[in-house]
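User: Hey, quick favor. My workstation is busy. Could you predict this chain's structure for me?
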Amino acid sequence: MLRPACRVPFVQHVLLGACLIGALSVQPASAQESEKKKLVIVAGKPSHGPRLHEFNAGVQLLHQCLIGQANVESHFVLDGWPADESVFEEADAVVFYMDGGGRHELVQEDGRRLKLVDQWTRNGVGIGCMHYGVEVLPDQAGTEFKRWMGGHYEHMFSCNPIWEPNFSRLPDHPITRGVKPFKIQDEWYFNMRFVSDLAGHEPADAEGMKFVPILVASPSDAVRDGPYVYPKGPYEHIQANKSRAEAMMWTVERPDGGRGFGFTGGHFHDNWANDDFRKVVLNAMVWLTKAQVPAGGIVSTVTEADINANLDPKPRKKNK
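Assistant: No problem, here it is.
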């Protein structure tokens, strides 16, 4: 079971190391396969209602599932960008699970964070973003996101309906090891703004990247017609692609030697109880570091208590 107390050491660590702010750059750890790879998972600030966008609880749950993995050392950050950036030292990969758009944690501080992460990627560090964290404003960070992870959500170009895609066919890729076909309701974004304007549902080589979609499904006409979560739609360009499959998780291998992935699910916290939903993300995190994903994927078990641990105290809406 996850323990709420696991938040305390991180806070203490931040206070002790705050003097290092702004002075650090990530350098990838040794490339030797025998050495553990360092993964940092960053949770955003509390957002939305109870059991929605539970970034802090979700990150701690995924971290707990990675404890004991022979080739990955997982670290987590809570409540947004850390005051003590030393947590990023020698990271092989960093995953961001947080709110995005114009308030994305990565576009704050007048571009300092964007420049910092961009330098990490040029050193081969893997970057992953999940759910709302895949959305940025094109003129703020669109170029960077396409370079780091092959694409991003673009307001009024992409859409965000709540629906239940059927991931019936999975590609032969380390991220799908041990993952069985599954379907699950979530706020699955699609029609991403991919590098070189790829449709995204097929593997491709683009701008020196190897692009591979991982979770692909075909929305029904009703899903394409909306309503979307916001704005409710329909959008004519989304309707125009009826019958086309859409990528909701994708990967890139970059020319700098690093890797990237985007995952558009993760709205409903309770979905982490689904073994295949959880495994495909855990596998992706390990793959992102360049560690070996086991033949059966990352095996983990969570209980109802684990799912309910570390939830943010969010007020419930009063019934009218």
